[in-house]
Amino acid sequence: xxxxxTYVSTAVNLFDNTEINSVLDAVKxxxxxxxxxxxxxxxxxxxxxxxxxxKEVVSKLYEKIRSDERHKNVLTLQQSQVSQRVxxxxxxxxxxxxxxNLIFDLNSYLKYLRLLEDNEVNQIITIVESIYSKx
Length: 135
Known about the structure:
Elements: E1 2-11, H1 17-34, E2 37-43, E3 46-53, H2 55-67, E4 71-82, E5 94-95, H3 100-115, H4 119-132
């Protein structure tokens, strides 16, 4: 079973593109080492992230995020055990919604996942789309 967790938080300070790219590089490298997949969206001081992997690893990573001084108002949206990774085939990354190509890719991937008609996956997608559309 794969553990999946989705959260939103508020950045204590707004980031510029250089800072965002620095965070992205660190997140990608760390998640690859930890075998964690998912995605992270940042827009105007709000983060939306989905993490999936081993429950203990994801839980420790989330606690690290919750105690990170760059975040406040950390709110868990969803957590569950699923039979397979939702974003295993997706090029996990850090999305800034003004990059229309990345947004198109994420939306296309979510539509593809809906075609699989998996109730577990659809519940996660519904939560992600609901929050993401309001960012």
